[in-house]
Fold these 2 entries.
Entry 1:
Amino acid sequence: MHIAVVGLSHRTAPVEIREKLSIQEQTIKSSLKSLKEHNEILEASILSTCNRLEIYTVVRDPQNGIHAINDFLCEYSGIEFQELSPHLFVFHHDEAIAHLLKVAAGLDSLVLGEGQILSQVKKMVRLGQEHNSMGPILNRLLTQAVSTGKRVRSETSLGTGAVSISSAAVELAQLKLGQSLGKDDLVSLESEKVAVVGAGRMSRLLLQHLQSKGCSDLVLLNRTRKRAESLASSFPELSVKCHLLEELDNCLCNCTLVFTSTAAEEPIIDASRLIPLKRQGFLRLIDIGVPRNISADVEGIKGVESHDVDDLQEVVARNQEARQQVALQAEGLLQEEGRLFLEWWDSLEAVPTINRLRSSLEEIRAVELQKALSRMGPDFSARERKVVEALSKGIINKILHTPVTKLRAPQGRNDRQNALSIVELLFDLQDPKASDQ
Ligand SMILES: NC(=O)c1ccc[n+]([C@@H]2O[C@H](COP(=O)([O-])OP(=O)(O)OC[C@H]3O[C@@H](n4cnc5c(N)ncnc54)[C@H](OP(=O)(O)O)[C@@H]3O)[C@@H](O)[C@H]2O)c1
C-alpha cells in the first residue's frame, strides 16, 4: 500500500485549466465513486478549491494507482493527457504527507497563511467520510492535517491579520486605482461606485475588507434576495443596496468597480453583455470566482479593465516577505507532524502479527476455560462462571500489553522486523498468505 496525491494548483496551472477541473460539492460523490471503482485505488478523497484540485489516495501500486487517477482527471476535464500532464504534480508517500500538511497550514496558498483552506480541508474530510471513500489511513492522515492546520495557526502568527483571496482582491482594486491616478500606493476606495456580485463566504470577506478600505456604500447583487439581505444586515455601518441578478446590467452601467464571487459554473458577464451597454464611465472588474464569473472575451473592450484570481499574484507578492519569515517557524511544526504520521504508518506493519498473536492466545484461553468449566460441574453459578471468564481475559490482556506496545512503538524498520520474526517464531504464528503460496 502506498499514499499518493495527484493534483494541480495555482503554482502549476492557469485559471483556464483549473476551472475545467473544479469539482463542485454536488459532483464530489460521483467523482469519489468513479475513483473507488478502480481496483488500484483503495482509499480516495478530493480537495477542490479555487486554486487547486488534489486527489489524495491510498493505492495498491504507485505506478498503476497514478495511472488510474490520471485517467479520471482526463475523463472529468475532457482534456487530453498530453495537454494536462505539464500542469500536474504527483507526490508519493512521505512527500504526499508533507504536501498535505503544508496545504492545510496555508503554506502552499496563493495568499500565505489564508484561513479558508483549512475549512476546505475539513470539508474534504467530511465528504470523504459521508461518501465512505476513505479508510483508516486517509482518515488518520486527513484528521491529522486538520489538527496540524489548527496547530500552526495557534502556535505561530501565520494566521494573524486578515488574509484571504478577498482581501487580496480589494488590495488589487486599490493598487489599480492608485496606478490609474499615477500613484504606486494602495489608495482609498472612497470615491468608487462599488458592486459585489454574490453573497456567499467570499463576498462576506469582500464586504469586510471594502469597509476597512474606506468604502461606505455599495450595491450587492445575488441570485436570491434573502441571502443578500442577510449578508447586508451583518454590516450595519455599510450602506448596502440589495438587488437580484436581473439588475446586473444596470449595475455594470453605473458602477466603477465590480467584484464577482459567485459559484456559477458559467460566466455571468461576457463581451456580448458588456458591449451594448451605455456605460457611464470606466469600469474595473475583479473576478475571484473559479470557474470564472467573467469571460476572458471582455479583455480589450474600451473602458473596461478585467482581472481574475491569477492577477492577484501582483498584490500578494508585495505582502509575502514578512509572512515568509513566519512560514519558516511553521515548517518545523509540519516536520514534527509528518514524522508522527510516518511513525504510525510504520507501526501498521506490526498489526497482522499482533492480530495473529491475539487470536492464538484467545483460542488457548477459550479451550482452557471450557475445560475448567466442565470440570467444575453444575455447582458453579452463572455469576462464578462470568468471574472466571473475566479473569482469563484479564490475564491475556495483561500479558499482551507490553509486547504489543513495544511492537507498535517507533523503532527502526530492521528492529521491528526482527522483533516480529521472533514473536512469530516463539508463538508459532503462521502468516496465512505465506502458507497459501
Ligand atoms: N471559499 C474560498 O476560499 C474561495 C477562495 C477564492 C475563490 N473562491 C471562489 O469564489 C466563488 C464563491 O465562493 P464562496 O465560497 O463564496 O461560495 P458560497 O459561499 O457557496 O456562495 C456561492 C454564491 O454564488 C451564488 N451562486 C451559486 N450558483 C450560482 C449561479 N448559477 N448563478 C449565480 N449565482 C450563483 C450563490 O447564490 P445564492 O445565495 O442565490 O445561492 C452565492 O451567492 C467560487 O467560484 C469559489 O471558487 C472561493
Entry 2:
Amino acid sequence: MARLENKVAIVTGAGRGIGKAVASHYVREGATVVLAEIDETLGHKLADELSAGGATAVFIKTDMNSLADIDALVGQTKSDFGRIDILVNNAAVTKSLGFFDVTEEDWDWIHNVNTKGLFFCMQSVAKIMKEQGGGKIVNIASIAGKGYPATSNIAYAGSKGAAIAMTRIGASSLARHNINVNSICPGVTRTDLYYEVMRGKVASSGKSEEEIISALDASIPIRRSNEPGDIADLAVFLASEESRNVTGQSWNVDGGLMWD
Ligand SMILES: NC(=O)c1ccc[n+]([C@@H]2O[C@H](COP(=O)([O-])OP(=O)(O)OC[C@H]3O[C@@H](n4cnc5c(N)ncnc54)[C@H](O)[C@@H]3O)[C@@H](O)[C@H]2O)c1
C-alpha cells in the first residue's frame, strides 16, 4: 500500500525545486496534494502534469507573505477535501548578499516569507489538525539555520534558525493534539534557487560558476550535492505513519556538512 494513501497535503512553494519534488513524491505515495505557489504559470503547469498522471493535485495561488492568502489556502483546502493531514512549509526566498550589504528591505522580504509566513501557515493548519485529532507538519529549514557559513546571507540564516526553533516550540505545543512537527535542513541542493545564488556569488567573488560549484561540491564529505528528490524522500517519511513518534527534530540532508 502507498504510504500516504487517503491523505490530504498542502505543499507551499510547490512550483519548482524541492517543493515540486515533494509534491510529486506525495502524489506517488497516494496523497491528494494542494500546490500553494505564488507563480501561476508554475502552479498550473505542475497541477496539469500531476493530474494527467491520474493524481488529485490542485493549484491554489498563494503568497506566503500574505496572511489573508494563507487563511484562504487553508479554508479552501478544508472545504474542498474535508481535512488537512500534512503541511509542508517549503516556500522561501533568498539571494547572495555579503554581511554589510543586507538592507532592511532584504531583511523584510526574507523574513516575511521564511519566518512570518511559515509560522502563520503552521498556526492556521494546526487549528484544523487539532479538530481532526492529528496531523504532520514538515518545515523545510536549512543547514544555514545551524550556522553553515557558506550560506546565501545572514538574514536568510536567521530565518532558518527561526524555523528550527519554531519547529521545536510547535512540536511541544502541538504534541498533545497528536500533531508531529519536524524540520528538514537541506544542504547544497541543485534547484533554480541554488543556481540563482551561485550567479550572485560569481558576481561578488570574480570566480567562475564552475569554480564555485566544484569548490562547493569538494567541501561536501560525501562529495555529492543533493537532488531535490533527496529531500522529498525524507519528507515522505516525516509525513507517514512510520514517523508517528518522531517530533521536534531538524534533520540534515547534506552529505555530512553539519553534525548537529
Ligand atoms: N536549494 C538549496 O540549496 C536549499 C538549501 C537549503 C534549504 N533550502 C530550502 O528549501 C526550500 C525550497 O528551496 P528551492 O531551492 O526549491 O527554491 P526555489 O526558489 O527553486 O523554489 C521555491 C518555490 O517557492 C515559490 N515561492 C517563492 N516565494 C513564494 C511566496 N511568497 N509564496 C508562495 N510561493 C513562493 C517560488 O515561486 C518557487 O516555486 C526553501 O525553504 C529553501 O530555503 C534550499
